[in-house]
Design goal:
The chain has 20 helices and 28 strands. The protein is an alpha+beta fold. The protein binds one RNA strand through helix 1, strand 2, helix 4, strand 6 and helix 5.
RNA sequence: GCCCGAGUGGCGGAACGGUAGACGCAGGGGAUUCAAAAUCCUCCGCCCUAGCGGGUGUGUGAGUUCGAAUCUCACCUCGGGCACCA
């Protein structure tokens, strides 16, 4: 998670410096470049700038060839996929630069299609030996590719494949200029930056990758952006007393597009500055803007200011964030950013700089997608409940089944638990949803088994109902056995809830139900076990739990009763069954007292039939006894 | 291409390096019933065996260990993210 965010932010440390030029137009006597590998400066063979670089823009106006090339780059440049497949191309500007360490060393300046204007300075120096893109480019245009460093074990010069070892790996520098001859890339980079700073060649720079942080969307569903477009004053912010600008309710979605665009009374307004006729911004904010700070707002939902500091101080932080992995680098990152800003503006306490104390990443619920096509061949999606055996319920038309994907309203592959609730009740629906899959995993939705869940809950109710018929007193042994089972359930259900493995909690409750059903315990012991069961299942099946609680003699509401505590003394067994392995394979098992010493376990194990057979009179080569766990005999 | 994550019965899934498959679903057999529903009992990874029992088995291949689903390395498949970032 943190790694994904780190990659997204794209922090890098490098060197920024300038090449001095010759033959360049006025105002371009220096070209600033940025590199994360300043240690490869002696392997430079060309300089390349982005088609959007000021130099390229300048040349575009004076040179037909350049204009043609740049236009071509822009044409391809729109689609990311095209960009990926596009060949590395460039055009020689005729301009030359001098190497910062050697006045006599000249290199050509290209405009190249693979250089991005919005990262670094929009200009690079190419080091073909240690960058595949640069190497492809250099080979295409017949430029040299001198090695800067070689592998320690196989010092071969670079040919078709650039030599790019991890920065943590030590290599031998053959054209180094700072630091040791043999050093890691990391060390060399640090040494190179230090060297360049000392010699006033350049300075170290930490870069962040900038990505699309635009917040506006052309749609109705979102907070209006409180900005007014005035023909006289231009773009004007709405006055504070008019905030918030609220969405109009009387909109229709009959025609495609943003309804705000064609809403006359909302769209037309007066300019907050000059009072003249103006129009509102019809773009709205993406929902991530709201979701990035709603948890802070929730601490004081009726406050007239964004937050109430006393309330925020009291309630923040968020104890537990639960969300899908798709939020990892979007919502979670934006929220952290917002929280930092809100700490600085005084809306949140300092401790909320990181607003979430814990994160649980839940899986997605998936379902098949059912599709037909309309008269014009456009896809039409259908709800699962409208489809039966591959055909539409209404018309009998066959549907195309698209493999399972995350549920989405637009694809209509959503299911509503309302069917289960209608047939079996809310308790069954909740238990069913929690029972099988651990929540961090993706699950294919199926309602198969809902009925079985209902049968199980009925069985629990029946067990409570039959309590009166149980014998007044059971044997002490049976009573104790049931008590132990109940306390084991307390331990397991509690652990399951605390670790979000609700499926394991449910499994433990099944086990307790089975134990109760088979038990010969007396009425008091059964009632106690039932009360514990009611408490343990209350979070999952609150209605049934209250009933069972009452039937078993609980007082008040089970929801108000304190969570039961497992008695450690009841969690241990007096005798344990130990598996016996012979050469690591399970061959037998023995029963020993819980507190049996190693010697005693050994003695019992060596008396076991299977062990005697395996040893055939000889002595074991080795005997491993892990108390309470296992015995392994090596022969 | 790079970076994460996951691969266990027919299915959902359990297993601090210590009896693989808990618990559930589906399925088989039986009891009860005139019959059914409901309920209860029982079996249930695969192969061999009449049975007792044996072999084999956690994506594939190696390794560490007395012992590996679990740890290490390589590979395969699937899912997700990023993707010319100098």
């Amino acid at each position: 998670m943190r790694l994904m965010q780190r990659n997204w932010i794209g922090r890098s440390r490098g060197l920024q410096f300038a090449f001095s030029t010759s033959g360049a137009p006025e105002g371009f006597d220096r070209i600033e470049v940025y590199t994360t590998r300043p240690d490869t400066l002696m392997g430079a063979s060309f300089v390349a700038v982005s088609p959007d670089h000021p130099l390229a823009r300048h040349l575009e106006r004076h040179d037909e060839n350049v204009a043609g090339f740049v236009a071509e780059c822009r044409r391809i440049g729109t689609s990311e996929e095209a960009l990926e497949k596009a060949e590395k191309k460039g055009i020689d500007t005729g301009i030359r630069v001098r190497h910062p360490f050697d006045e006599a060393w000249e290199m050509p300046v290209y405009i190249a299609n693979f250089i991005l204007m919005d990262y670094g300075t929009g200009a690079i120096f190419g080091c073909p030996a240690h960058d595949q893109r640069d190497l492809d480019f250099a080979r295409k245009y017949g430029l040299p590719h001198p090695d800067v460093f070689v592998a320690l074990d196989a010092p071969e010069p670079v040919e078709a494949t650039a030599f790019v070892p991890p920065k943590t790996e030590a290599v031998r520098y053959v054209r180094g200029f700072a630091g040791e001859e043999v050093q890691t890339g990391e060390a060399a980079i640090d040494a190179a930056i230090a060297f360049c700073e000392e010699n006033s060649v350049g300075h170290g720079v930490t870069q962040y990758r900038l990505r699309d942080w635009g917040i506006s969307r052309q749609r109705y569903w979102g907070c209006p952006i409180p900005v007014v477009h005035c023909p006289a004053c231009g773009v004007v912010p709405e006055n504070k007393e008019n905030l918030p600008v609220e969405l109009p309710m009387d909109v229709s979605f009959d025609t495609p597009g943003n309804p705000l665009e064609r809403h006359p009374t909302w769209k037309n307004c007066t300019c907050p500055r000059c009072g003249g006729a103006a129009t509102r911004e019809t773009d709205t904010m993406d929902t991530f803007v709201d979701s990035s700070w709603y948890f802070a707002r929730f601490t004081a939902p009726r406050a007239t200011t964004p937050t109430d500091r006393a309330e925020a101080d009291y309630w923040m932080n968020v104890d537990q964030y639960i969300g899908g992995i798709e939020h990892a680098i979007l919502h979670l990152l934006y929220s952290r950013f917002f929280a930092r800003a809100m700490v600085q503006t005084g809306h949140l306490p300092d401790s909320a700089k990181e607003p979430f104390d814990a994160l649980f990443t839940q899986g997605m619920v998936t379902h098949e997608i059912y599709m037909t096509r309309d008269g014009r061949g456009r896809p039409v999606y259908h709800l699962p409940e409208d489809v039966e055996e591959g055909k539409l319920r209404t018309t009998g038309e066959a549907v195309t089944i698209i493999p399972s994907a995350k549920m989405s309203k637009s694809k209509k592959n959503v299911v509503d638990p309302v069917n289960i609730i209608g047939a079996f009740g809310a308790d069954t629906a909740r238990w069913f949803v929690l029972s099988d899959s651990p929540p961090e995993r993706d699950v294919e939705w199926t309602s198969a088994g809902a009925e079985a869940t209902y049968r199980h809950l009925s069985r629990v109710w029946r067990l409570a109902d039959e309590l009166a018929q149980a014998p007044e007193a059971g044997s002490a042994g049976e009573d104790l056995a049931l008590q132990k089972a109940a306390h084991r359930a307390i331990a397991e259900v509690t652990r399951g809830i605390e670790t979000f493995t609700f499926n394991k909690s449910v499994a433990a409750l099944y086990a307790l139900t089975n134990a109760l059903q088979k038990s010969g315990a007396g009425r008091a012991a059964r009632a106690e076990a039932l009360r514990i069961m009611a408490q343990l299942m209350a979070p999952m099946v609150p209605h049934l739990a209250e009933e069972v609680w009452q039937m078993a003699g609980g007082s008040g509401l089970v929801a108000a009763a304190p969570w039961p505590q497992a008695d450690p003394a009841l969690l241990v067994e007096d005798t344990v069954t130990l598996p016996i392995q012979i050469n690591g394979k399970r061959r037998s098992e023995i029963s020993v007292p819980r507190d049996a010493g190693k010697d005693e376990v050994e003695r019992i194990a060596l008396a076991d039939d299977a062990v005697i057979r395996a040893l055939a009179g000889g002595a074991p080569k080795k005997l491993i006894v892990v108390p309470g766990r296992i015995v392994n005999v090596v022969v």
